[in-house]
Amino acid sequence: MLRLSGFASSATIEESGPRSALRLVTSPTGPAPNLDHDAYLFRGDTCDPDCRWVVTFEEHQAEAERRFSSRPLIVLPDYFSYLSEGDVIRFVPDRKAVRVLFRKEANANYFLVTERCNHLCLMCSQPPKDVDDHWLAREIIDVLPLLPATTPFLGITGGEPTLVGEAFFEILSCARDHLPSTPIHILSNGRTFKDKAFAQRYQAIGNRRLSIGIPIYSADPEVHDYVVQSKGAFDETIRGIMNLKAVGAEVEIRVVVHKQTYEGLADLSDFIFRNLTFVDHVTFMGLEITGFTRANMDKLWMDPYDYRNELRAAVQYLAAARINVSVYNHQLCLLDGSIHQYAKRSISDWKNEYADECASCSLRDRCGGFFSSSSLARSSHIAAFQ
C-alpha cells in the first residue's frame, strides 16, 4: 500500500506561506515551468528545469541543500520515493504536511471535493465532517490545468460533491476545458438532482465523457434509507436518477453488498429492470473495511462466499436483460464461476494487495485482489486456482 500523505522531513519555506499544489518536473525539455506550481524533483541528477521550488528525498538532502541554497526546498521521507514526473502534491508550510493529489501512472485518480454529506452510510469509507472545506474545490480548480491531457481517468468524490454548489459546476467546466478526452466519473448519492434545474445545468456542461455513479442499496425504501441513515433518501435518489436520464446524462447504479443488502439483491435487479432499465451500468461492490464500516462490522460483515448465490442470481438477471453489469472489489475464488466474466479489477492501485494464497493462483492477473484494509476480516474460502 502506498502512503499518500505524511510530513516533510524538512523544508526551507516560510511557515506563514500559503498551501501550494506542486507539479513535479524532472526534465527541462517540456513546456516552460509554471512558476506558481512547478517544482523540480531532484534525485541527484544534473538537469535543472529552473523551477522556483525544489523537492527531493532524504538521501539527496545534503547535495540539494548545497546546489539549491537560494530556492525553497522540501525534503520528503523515503516512503514518497514512488513520486515521479507529472505527479502533483499539496504542501502546507506551517505543518510541513504533504498530500499526493495526482499520480500520473496511477490506474485511477480521485479528487475529494468536500467531506460534507447529507448521508451517514453505515459503511462509509470517508466519514463526513461538518466543516467549511470550500478550499478543496478551489484547489481542484487550480490543479486540473496542471494535469496531462492524456490522463486516462479522473474521479470526483466526497462527501457529497454536489453540496459545494457553484464550485461543483466550476470543477466540471474546468475538467471539460483542460481534459477534453479524459473520462470524468462522479460519485454522488444523487439526491441533489431531484431538482430538475440542477440536473439540466449538470448536463449543460457539455462534456460527453462525464458520468455519475449513484448508489441504490435495496428495492425496499426502508432498507435503503436505513443503510444511508437518512429518511426519504430513496425517493429523492430515484427522482434524481430519473431527472439525470431525462436530460441524457450517463448514470451508473452502485450497490455495496453486505449483511443488510445481500438478501434483496434479486429484488433490486428486478426493480432496476422494471423501473430503471435505461441506466448505463450497474455495479455490485465488495465491502471496504474502513471508515464507518469498522464501527459497524456486526451489522455489515459477512463472508462474500456466503452470498455468492444471491450475487450470481442478481448479476445473471441483469445480464439476461441486456443491462451492462459488473462486479467490483471481489476475488474470483469467492464468485460463482458463471459470473467471472463480469468481475473487474477495480481497486485503486495504492490500496490494492493480494493474500499469500494468491501467489500460485493461475487467475491472479485477472483477479481484483483485496483492499489493504481487508486484513481486518477476510473470507475463509480464499484459494488459488491451479
Automatic annotation (TrEMBL):
In this chain the Radical SAM core domain maps to 103-329
Q: Mind giving the lineage of the organism this protein is from?
A: Bacteria, Pseudomonadati, Pseudomonadota, Alphaproteobacteria, Hyphomicrobiales
* Keyword annotations: Iron, Iron-sulfur, Metal-binding, S-adenosyl-L-methionine
NCBIfam families for the chain: rSAM_pair_HxsC
Checking InterPro entries in the record gives:
Aldolase_TIM, Elp3/MiaA/NifB-like_rSAM, Radical_SAM_PqqE_MftC-like, rSAM, rSAM_paired_HxsC, rSAM_sf
Give the organism, scientific name: Mesorhizobium abyssinicae
Question: Which residue windows are coiled coil?
Answer: none
What is the name listed in the Swiss-Prot or TrEMBL entry for this protein?
His-Xaa-Ser system radical SAM maturase HxsC
Q: Does the keyword Iron apply?
A: yes
